[in-house]
Write a structure and sequence with these properties.
Elements lengths: L10 H11 L2 E6 L6 E5 L1 H18 L5 E6 L5 H16 L3 E7 L8 H14 L4 E10 L2 E8 L2
Parallel strand pairs: 3-4
Antiparallel strand pairs: 1-2, 4-6, 5-6
Amino acid sequence: MEGKQLGVIPLADALAEAAKSGLDLVEVSPTAAPPVCRIMDYGKFRYQQSKKVQVSKKSQTVIQVKEIRLRPKTETHDLEVKIKHVRKFLDQHNKVKITMMFRGREIAYTEIGRKIMGDILNTLAEEAVIDQQPKLEGRNMIMILSPKK
């Protein structure tokens, strides 16, 4: 009976065949006409399925979104330190959300923020791909970068 098809048989005969071989009758495709069943050891099948799930979880990587916050008045050295942090996050295969915060009257100088965002993008051109262009949302300008493959 190893892998061979028995054809269309009544339910009682299928259950008797499964009991004779000491295995379970498992419905594989209930939507088919007629429904498709299989004679197998269901406990062993479930164990193998759980092992497959464990192996797939072990091999997958979780991508996080890290955030770097800036202001238009951030000095060049501080900006270089922030870019170093962005590089570190990209090396760890994480996405980076760069947020430029405008406080008070700084909102009138969004072009300065765009220029700083452009400089950051030019600096990280070899390591990063831009997911979202710099976009003003309220008082924050947001840009999202992801690592190159």
